[in-house]
Amino acid sequence: MTLHQGAVARPWVERILAINGWFVFAFLYLPIMVVVVFSFSGSSNVGIWGGFSLRWYDQMLGNQQLMNALKNSIVIALWSTVIATVLGTAAALSLDRYRRWVGRGAFDGLLYLPIIIPDVTMAVMLLLWFTQTGLVPLGRTSITLAHIAFNISFVAIVVRARLAHMDPEMEDAAADLYAGRWQAFRRVTLPLILPGVLGGALLALTLSLDDVVITSFVQGPGATTLPVYVFGLIRRSVTPEINAVSTFMIAISMVLVLGSLGFQRRSEKDD
Amino acid sequence: MTTLKERKGAQQESSNPKLERSARRRESWRGFFHAAPAYVYLTVFFTLPLLIVFVFSFASRSRTGRPELEGWNLDSWARLGEPLVRTIVVRSFTMAIFNTLLCLLIAYPFAYWIATRARQSTRTLLLVAVLIPFWSNFLVRTYAWRMLLDSDGYITQIGEFTGLWGRMLFTAPAVFIGLVYGYLPFMVLPLYAALERMDWSLVEAGRDLFASGPKAFRKITLPLSKPGIIAGSILVFIPSLGAYVTPDILGGAKTTLLGNYIVTQFGSARNWPFGSALSGAILFVMLLATVAYFRTGGRTV
């Protein structure tokens, strides 16, 4: 296959394709870069460069409310990720390894819904659920439970993609060598799908750390998360401190995403 | 404990239907057993809450705004026909449709460009470059536009310098830009997946049969990438229909969308039953779109 799939189009079409391509990359990156650059500006006016300075990061670290919100975010993200990863991986196994069981079709569909449903509707659903049943008071627990609800689906999809590449004969081979079910899973299946599991877990961590809408609905007094706190700040006014927090958040998600992609890519190379 | 080998042996032993049936039953039970924890969890924290929304959309409202289940009525659903609500619904649908179309218009040539004009190794790199801003916080990305579109923001300065536009913040164009920015990657990824997988020898065959470039594109490439177009459109349309953060940060009073209106019902307006009816309406549209998607043989993402 040549470099150009399909035929080479007329020059002006080629030019438009290339211009559009670079335009999209500029569109995606320039706004983020403006935020990052101005987070290092010494000026207290958001859009004016006032020389390199770390004062906004300093102010961020000194903001007690913000640090509390960050702590909540981390605790909630870790718990929801661990639980969602276990449940999501088991769900992916059930769909990939077992083709026929009662309720499989419904489960398959149900697993996709939390991904496509708009945030606001899911937030409303969970708020009504928590307040009307009264089983869980609104607070860190209710936020964690809500995050697990959307993270299961994302983990399941990533792990399922990995399972689809895996040869089921591997497990049979282990069984031929008298490995029990658990042993076969522990020694053969798990190591093989581990990149997918870790990739899914990092994705879950990112989504939990990023969620604003659902969290702001099911949060309780004194238990807010970092994005929800920042959302509150942004609605009030635009300050350079928000630039610093934003840059910090971008850095976190970038590390997590690159990690997640790294795991998934390594898994592709193994095949 | 039965081993996998026994299971496999039992499956192959089709001469013994009784053994086969018991193996299948065991198989079925194991599948359910693996799914059970997630199944139960999603039933409790997703399906039941979803049903509760519909239940409370028929509830009446007490003086404090709390929903009361005595006194069922259709008031909340009837309110969907009010002029104000209709304006917001029409505005949200218009915004979501235009957003989907513009994303398609930008993302299709973009995905095509990556899938056909880049080397294999560069392709992955370019795709990662699309993913990185996609996964960085939605809120932060929206905030970036608030900076750019405000009176002293760069976009405004460029507009004033060229005399083409003024301050766009808190107007519909600002919300529109924010939505395109937020959801464009949702369109790029399925389109890319569809184009990447495509059998390009079909296009070559078409060209060999003297189809012109545009005709080959219209008759071969476009139909073959249809699953990607449909998947991407649903992935953009549904969240933009329920958008809340973008219009909240970039829009003003005249750009209230369904998402904001729902949040208001649960916040300052304190009308939970009406908010539930609005959410129920969105859920209904979403389920319709999803069913339509699976009907067209989707599930290709």
Summarize, please:
With 271 residues, chain A is mainly alpha-helical. Chain A has 11 helices and no strands.
**Helix count from the secondary structure assignment of chain B:** 14
Share in β-strands of chain A: under 5%
Biggest interface and which pair forms it? A-B, 107 and 104 residues
Output the number of helix runs of chain A. 11
The tally of structural domains of chain B comes to 2
Overall helicity of chain A = over 70%
Determine the oligomeric state from the structure.
heterodimer
Identify the overall geometry of chain B: flat
By secondary-structure content and strand pairing, the structural class of chain A works out as mainly alpha
CATH H-tier superfamily of chain A:
MetI-like
CATH class of the largest domain in chain B: Mainly Alpha
From the N-terminal CA to the C-terminal CA of chain B, the straight-line distance is 38 Å
What string, H for helix and E for strand, traces the elements of chain B in order? HHEEHHHHHHHHHHHH
> What do we call the CATH homologous superfamily of the largest domain in chain B?
MetI-like
Name some characteristics of this structure.
heterodimer, A: 271 residues, mainly alpha, MetI-like fold, 77% helix, 0% strand, globular, B: 301 residues, 2 domains, two-stranded antiparallel sheet, flat
Describe the structure.
- By secondary structure, chain A is mainly alpha-helical.
- Chain A has a single domain, classed as MetI-like (MetI-like fold, Orthogonal Bundle), CATH 1.10.3720.10.
- Chain A is 77% helix and 0% strand.
- Chain A contains eleven helices and no strands.
- In chain A, helix 3 packs across helix 10.
- The radius of gyration of chain A is 23 Å and the shape is globular.
- Chain A starts with 10 loop residues before the first helix and ends with a helix.
- The mean pLDDT of chain A is 86.
- In chain B, helix 4 packs antiparallel against helix 11.
- Helix content of chain B is 75%, strand content 1%.
- Chain B has a two-stranded antiparallel ribbon.
- Chain B folds into two domains: 53 residues, no CATH class; 217 residues, Orthogonal Bundle (MetI-like fold).
- Chain B starts with a helix and ends in a 6-residue tail after the last helix.
- Chain B is mostly helical.
- The chains are: A mainly alpha (271), B mainly alpha (301).
- Chains A and B meet through helix 1, helix 3, helix 4, helix 5 and helix 6 of A and helix 1, helix 2, helix 4, helix 5 and helix 6 of B.
